[in-house]
Amino acid sequence: MTSRAQIIEAFRTPIATPLIAAPAIAVRCGVGAVLIKDESRRSFGNFKMLGGLAAGLSALARFAGTPVESLFAMDGRHLPPLVCASDGNHGLAVAAAASAAATRAIVFLHDDVDHRRAARIRELGAEIVRVSGTYDDAVDRAATFAAGGGGLLIADTSERTDDPVVTDVIAGYRRIIDELEEAARRSMTHAFIQAGVGGLAAAVAEAFARRQGPPIRMIVVEPDQAACVGHALRHGVAEPIPGSLVTTAEMLSCGVASVPALAILQRHGAEAATVSETELGAAVPILAAEAGVEASPSGAAGLAGLLRAAADPCRRAHFRLDRSSTVFLVASEGAAPSA
């Protein structure tokens, strides 16, 4: 079990995750290079810790009118609970923030969230509230509960472009790119980045826009059954998409794009692509065998998008993939929790 002291240390001195060259995947895809940021090496095994932990602590600091560092010496009983909805990983990050500040977390999980993911959140002292329906139903329940005085809402999605918490979440994710050496950032021509509500893709797009050189080609990858960000990019509005949202990429099972993320993706000319369940499943062993990265279908979804585009002459031409391309991927989480 992770202690409060360990969480505080992870916040104060985060360890950079490795950038892995995958020449075998590059050859398979007919591109010059494939570079993969392995976020399975991040605290708690996924990138969400960069957003939810920092955003939760920042929200508590604003509430208390004190610097974040002062929270670690305060009596957390005087702080409000942190409230969020999650498919699993964001809830873990918010629970960690609450633990670091010695307060409570209340995490709303829809019924399809695996019990092993729920157990990891509960181990950090959080209260779990199960919600019938989808991730989006859990988002609505958490927002209603927080608005009724239940605590501070630490959402990773919002209908407001100026939502300060979601802004903090996306800013936290940008560390993934900030950790890269300048030469590596400048070499990359394409990014295939998976999306749930779009926060990770928005962070990557925003961070790459700050580099010197030509803009990166930004492709947002989603499961066929849960392509809410692609829908929003095509129609210019974040709105619920139809369907069950059932996918093996459980962390991407979202039905409404985040408005702040959408605004960033639009600003940077992002495009959208989808992948089938078969393609998601095929990407996992390729990532393990040819890059040495163990990931879930959610973590391997960006690779699935690249593989699909590289194998389709029309998509390949549309995205201008060739042997001069250097493709950036994020393995966003490690292998799915074991029984």
Rg (C-alpha, Å): 19 Å
* Widest sheet, order of strands: 1-2-10-7-8-9
Order of helices and strands: HEHEHHEHEHEHEHHHEHEHHEHHHE
Number of strands: 10
| Overall geometry | globular
As for the number of domains, it is 2
Distance between the termini: 17 Å
Task: State the CATH class of the largest domain.
Answer: Alpha Beta
Describe the 3D structure.
The radius of gyration is 19 Å and the shape is globular. The longest helix is centred in the first third of the chain and has 16 residues. The mean pLDDT is 96. The protein has two domains: 201 residues, Rossmann fold (3-Layer(aba) Sandwich), CATH 3.40.50; 107 residues, 3-Layer(aba) Sandwich (Rossmann fold), CATH 3.40.50.1100. The protein is of the alpha/beta class. The strands form two sheets. A six-stranded mixed beta sheet has the order 1-2-10-7-8-9, with helices on both faces. Strands 5-4-3-6 form a four-stranded parallel beta sheet, sandwiched between helices. The protein has 16 helices and ten strands. It is 45% helix and 15% strand. Helix 1 packs across helix 5, helix 3 packs across helix 5 and helix 14 packs across helix 15. Helix 6 links the parallel strand 4 and strand 5.
